[in-house]
Amino acid sequence: MLGHVFAAIDIGTNSIRLAVVRVEDGHRMTTLSQHREVVRLGEGEFESDKMSPEAIDRGTLVCARFADVARGFGANEIVAFATSAVREAENRDEFIERVRQEADIEVRVISGVEEARLIWQGVASGMDLAGRKALLIDIGGGSTEVVIGSAVGEYELLESMKLGAIRLTNRFLDSPDPVSPQLFEQVQGYVRGVANPVTRKAQALGFELAMGSAGTANALGEVVARRTGETSSRAGYTMRYNDLKYAVAMLCKLPLEERRQVPGMDPQRADIILGGAAILLTLMEMLEIDQLSTVDRGLRDGILLDHLLREDTILEEFKAISVRRRSIMQLAKACNYEQEHAEHTAFLALRLFDELSALGAHSYGSTSRELLEYAAILHDIGTFLSHSNHQKHAYYMVRNSDLLGFDDTEIDVIANVALYHRKSVPKKKHANLADLSLLQRKRVSFLAAILRISEGLDRSHLGLVKDISVKMSHNPEQCEITLIHTGNCTLEVWGVQNSRDLLEDVLQKPVVFNTRLITSSELEVVSTLNAV
To answer: Which fold has domain 5-109?
Structure first.
């Protein structure tokens, strides 16, 4: 499957989405292209039980264009799943046949429960839930899925309800006028009636955190964030119930054209946002959710992952690797990183980190250790673009990649540690450090100091330095690092001597280097100890 390119098309009630990916190995994918088009397949359908001819035309045209894009990237397999609008339409066979003829793809219509399962796969694969039970609410145009689970492939509740932003808009809110409190309460009453059996099951199972996916949750998250002053985040937004309630009340008072102008509002979604808001707000009330985090993953991601994990052995391998490590390795492989050098540098960096920790030279914990390892793996990926100033390219690539499972600060730390692995040292005036606190800047300096030394320890890229040992001397006051090596490591000695400035600065003492040549039998002992 290595190098295999395939595409997923999510044919939703409101939008059609495309993702084209290349499988890098058994469990990693590199995204080649992503697209979304609003087609409103479900427009007017939920009263007539049929997709309109105009909606079928729009949907077929977009599917054909997306299929062309996918094939242009070399995809020889296109998986297309259709949800609520197609699922419930009496004339769905007409749409499926049109797509077959004009796009040359087969559309699979999935049940609501299967839709919930795939959405959960997509969301859970991008989060590190650490075994916590999470409740997911995914509000689409025609249906709302509710899931409780703790990891990819692990769920306790899969439910789909006939509640959607377009469905409720068509039934109750199909007017450009403001929405009165009485009308909005009527919509909420309808939602309560439909959702009651599902919310009772969810309450009985219990959950530790709540998440919202799909367009409605993310659109409302953006609006609430603008009102509360929350800054943009890769990890989405966290909405408190009261903040959402006030934002929805504000939206209800506005006619459609003014609603489109609200900061954070997607103008294409303004006409159906109140239908979706009624669902989200009511479910949060019924489930006593005080805060909900938005996630920008869903069905399309689940389709891709489910296709990848068809073999049980791959599923187990996938689950054994954390979301964070998986996204780091995906970026490294996408940039054709030099695996042996990166892994050996990371090994030496962690050894130096641990040695200094044992000597009381720092108090950074496991999270800093993990970020150091990831920065070491990625430190040379900038050579993918150019060797000249490749540390700057590495910084840019890390900062602008969709690394899953990390918050913004952690991504900033990784990027900056990779940046400072050579040449300049961190300074407060540097623009790339502007978003980090003083404590985080100190952490960057310390981790970068370790990475600079570790990079020097493998300057020849031959893995000659097999291990290190560290001790602190008091007369004179200095840090002594011994390079344990198996061959002529002149380049390595030169490398660390020229990269010790930052480590001396953070330790506030001179750093000196010794060497110790070991035999093959001694190397076996060292290797055994390292494995333990």
So the answer is: Nucleotidyltransferase; domain 5 (3.30.420)
